[in-house]
Amino acid sequence: MDYTPSRFIRKTLMPDEKCVKDARFSWIYSFQAWVTWGFCILLGGIVHYALARYMGQYDLRPVYAGAGIGLWLFMAMMMKKWTTEIVLTTERLIYKRGFFRVGVEEVDIEQLASDNVEQSLCGRLFDYGTIHIRCIEADDIWLPAIHHPYEFRNALEQQKHLYREHYMKVEHLRRHGEQPGDEKP
Given 38, 95, 112, 124, which is the most exposed site by the fewest CB atoms within 10 A? Predict the structure, then answer.
């Protein structure tokens, strides 16, 4: 795995907890941010053209306003991308958002009930989609449009399977009066 968790994520990990998989925003999200900025500049240019053509006012302020608003929207979208981390560990799912005001949703593996991947036609073509994770005794989690959503869902399912397998083994030992560290070779 080529993922290095941020300092924030490293601080929240337990000593024996390892990062299994991370989810990253799709390139489509960055493309949408660039298109938004371009659209705002274009809109400012159209207003400038209309003012010049029909009112005789050659003022570039609409273009500057469009560029400024577009830049603000672009930076807001990119800050969301840059400050969001979605990490699956051996023990839980961590969904961290924000920089100044950090919001973190953490759900233990045993509380994950089901997950659904939602993809549009473009999502199927470019391999991105959102994931809705239903949780037991916790709020559901909606992950944003991520790249390779089925890989992340498969890693999530594998961690759930490993947890259940370990739990069943411990429960079997407990019912037979043994402790989890007392297995015979």
Answer: 124
CB 98 within 8 A of CB 117: no
pLDDT in tens, 97-124: 988 888 888 898 888 888 899 999 999 9
The tokens of 31 are what? 């493309």
Do 77 and 36 touch, CB atoms closer than 8 A?
Answer: yes
Nearest to 24 by CA among 154, 148, 117, 108: 148
Q: Say how far apart CA 28 and CA 45 lie, in whole Å.
A: 25
- Measured CA to CA, the distance from residue 97 to residue 147 in angstroms comes to 17
Collapsing DSSP to helix, strand or coil, 166 comes out as helix
Summary mean pLDDT of the chain = 87
pLDDT in tens, 120-137: 999 999 999 999 999 988
| Two tokens, residue 177 | 């009066």
CA–CA separation, 171 and 169 (whole Å): 5
First and final CA of the chain: distance in angstroms?
32
